[in-house]
Amino acid sequence: MRYAIVRSGASRSFPDGDPFLGRAVPADAAEVVVHLAGAEFRPAAGRAAVLVELGTECLGFHTGEDPAGEGGNVLGFARYRNGDDPPSALVELVRRPGTSADAVAAARAVFEEAGLAVVVCGDQAGRIVDRLVRPKYNAALRLLDEGLATQGDMDLTCRLGLGYPDGPIERVLRGGLAHHHDVTRALFETYGSAGFAPARRAVVEAQRRGKAAVPPD
């Protein structure tokens, strides 16, 4: 499936040097148009699919929330990435209630032909992964604050007892507490669920980042 890329600035899913960027073709030869983060979304009715890279926002932010228009050939996507870790091989593909099956198939083909795994989900902020893992990270950070166990003991328990490749605290720290704060705050503002409220340590790190950004007098 041939695709063209529209980009403006950095993409979390496909940073500079990613092979996916090099396989793109000119727009007039493409069946699918991929808008990377920062690029202005433009509908294109004649394409097999139009893809929009998402951050924490819903696809509806780009397309509008008119129920009568929840379909067609436009889909959102995000390649899962833990903070500044390299992007994973997982792409979350976002469809609206009336998105055509042909558009979903075309979008899936673009990513699968690039060697990526694709899961399809509805248009919810945080999609699948962040809605699952962010409350767990918050819970682990709060238990650390409460003195339930040390970071090492909690991470070791999850690795040995649950078979996780890494523990929740070491993973959220590697991804960056400030990044975790930004994601969870966006989800909390959308859903209002206590599990998404940023943990104290993440709030402090975000405050430190903001303080560091202010030049001294």
Automatic annotation (TrEMBL):
Q: Which Gene3D superfamilies match?
A: N-(1-d-carboxylethyl)-l-norvaline Dehydrogenase, domain 2
Leader sequence segment: none
Can you tell which superkingdom this protein's organism belongs to?
Bacteria
Q: Where is the 3-hydroxyacyl-CoA dehydrogenase C-terminal domain?
A: 128-212
- What this protein is called in its record is Fatty acid oxidation complex subunit alpha
Organism, scientific name: Methylobacterium crusticola
